[in-house]
Amino acid sequence: MTATYAMSVDVQTPDGVADAYVTYPDDGAAHPGVLVIQDGFGLRPSLRSLADRIAAHGYTVLLPNAYYRHGRAPVIELPDFIDPAQRPEIFQQVFPMIRELTPQLLRSDAAAYLAWLAASPQVAEGQVGLTGYCMGARLAVMAAAMFPDQVAAVAGFHGGPLVTDTPDSPHLTVGNITAELYFAHAGDDDHMTPEHIAQFDKALDAAGVRHRTEVYEGAHHGYTQADTSAYDPEAAERHYRELLALFDRNLRQ
Length: 253
Fold this sequence. Notes:
By secondary structure, the protein is of the alpha/beta class. Helices cover 34% and strands 25% of the residues. It has a single domain, classed as Alpha/Beta hydrolase fold, catalytic domain (Rossmann fold, 3-Layer(aba) Sandwich).
């Protein structure tokens, strides 16, 4: 683990300016780029710490505020410890913003984030990695399908929904993906039932996508997020091991 340097940056998009957090090894060298796509609660200190840990392993990490159209982070007021059972109104605040992130908006946003990484002197030449959490896993799959030439590795953790009955369901887009995928589902997760997982895997197999999916038994939806009631330290550490191994395989020249 190396020391990291972090700062806030603004990323120009077709719809405005997305505030973002960038973190990278403090060694003066360029490193492979990684795009972290937030969970539903948004850009906050715990996600910055997650990005820092990835960066300390030798990556330049961009963590944008996906809700930038509604203001700079924090877009909504969050407690230091998020327990949705005690604060159900939080979901009422974030769900409209989640639903707003259509494939059309994702395409323009992801293009801007990938362009920012490509132009950064802290990012080495070559393809980048994506990792997403909860809703971010869904967006990561779709972004990898939209920009296959730019993405070499995709990870998703307690993600969903990845299988829906709509024409833009993520599992219907995977035929364009050239990256290697790793997905780790929570054992207790209504967003991705065993049937959904099987259907997602079937779509990946049919498309010939290199992938591995696992179920972290006993873990709940949100298990990686250290500031939530769903946090599972053992599952979170497993997530870091698998994520960094995926990136090391695909992003190191």
